[in-house]
Specification:
Length: 323
């Protein structure tokens, strides 16, 4: 998500540039900093900058933007730079070029610190930050004879479970690396986003056949609007498969028609008109779904601007097998 925001910002700039990484200090605090450099078309010794920096002790990327010329570099926190913003910015880098170094001051509100940054070939994220991400065991939750072991990533503070006692060795070997990868990507996205990043989980089913859970997210990493939504994960413990489509379990069921028959008459007229939930199946082609002990949760998928329309619907197992 954070990477997508960064890509969008980069592609809005008209000239192909390059990136430069630095390692150094703000006062006594070690940092890494990277900027994408976009020289002006008629004067390559000056131009625009956008990037991020993070404190080595925190690893949380802080977006920065600015301008440069032959002698100096000016950076402020945020995604969009203007000279007027320098006076209102919470964080300001005022730096002078000296060989392969940037030397100057960093102002944080009313406090000023010395800055020394040196060019490096090291990639701040891939080479320094990401290898440091660590999962710390937090707690254990029992589902009858099965345990979900919860871990928290040290820097992002994001939690996620792994399969513990009660699951077979093959089940743990298959699904725990998948959960590791999900956890790691969420942690990296969280650290890339310095604004607002919330994730919560709803464990809907843990039994001998399946694990089903929903990840609910609410994220703002710059741009016009925040992003909200759900991601469904469904693990088949018998076949050791990650289930992508609910139709793989119920190939003969027309889920859209069953939901329409059950819910359309009870939908609020205004909401139904605005969201067009059951006008046709266009918002159900890429639905989110989850198994429960009683049936299946189904959530339509809307474009970004219409995510407030997303709601939870439910079909019981009895309804699924009913002709």
């Amino acid at each position: 998500m954070g990477k997508l925001i960064k890509h969008i910002i980069i592609t809005l700039l008209p000239i192909i540039g390059w990136s430069q990484s630095y390692v150094g200090t703000i006062g006594n605090y070690p940092i890494h900093l990277e900027v994408n450099v976009y020289p002006h078309e008629k004067d390559s010794t000056s131009g625009e900058l956008e990037g991020y920096y993070f404190y080595d002790s925190k690893l949380i990327s802080i977006p920065i933007c600015g301008r440069f010329n032959k002698e100096s570099v000016a950076l402020i926190d945020g995604y969009y730079f203007s000279h007027e913003k320098v006076f209102d910015a919470d964080e300001v880098f005022d730096l002078t070029k000296k060989g392969n170094q940037l030397i100057g001051n960093f102002t944080l509100k009313d406090d000023t610190y010395k800055v020394i940054l040196t060019e490096t070939e090291q990639e701040p994220l891939e080479d320094f930050r990401n290898p440091k991400l660590t999962f710390v065991k937090d707690s254990v939750v029992n589902f009858k004879d099965k345990q979900l072991v919860w871990f928290t990533e040290k820097y992002s503070k994001l939690p996620l479970f792994r399969l513990g006692n009660g699951f077979t060795k093959a089940q743990r070997a298959k699904f725990n690396p998948i959960l590791d990868a999900i956890h790691l990507e969420d942690a990296k996205d969280n650290l890339d986003c310095n604004s607002w990043f919330e994730i919560s989980y709803e464990i809907n089913l843990v039994n001998d056949k399946f694990i089903s859970y929903l990840k609910q997210y609410s994220v703002y990493c710059g741009g016009a609007h925040p992003s909200h939504g759900n991601v469904g994960y469904n693990f088949n413990l018998k076949t050791l498969e990650v289930l992508e489509d609910v139709e793989s379990l119920y190939p003969k069921v027309d889920f859209f028609q069953k939901l329409k028959d059950k819910y359309q008459d009870s939908e609020n007229d205004v909401a139904d008109e605005e969201c067009e939930t059951f006008v046709d199946d266009s918002y159900w082609q890429y639905k989110t779904w989850n198994l429960t002990s009683e049936g299946v949760i189904l959530i339509p998928n809307y474009p970004h601007a219409m995510t407030p329309c997303e709601d939870h619907y439910f079909l019981s197992y009895a309804e699924l097998i009913k002709a």
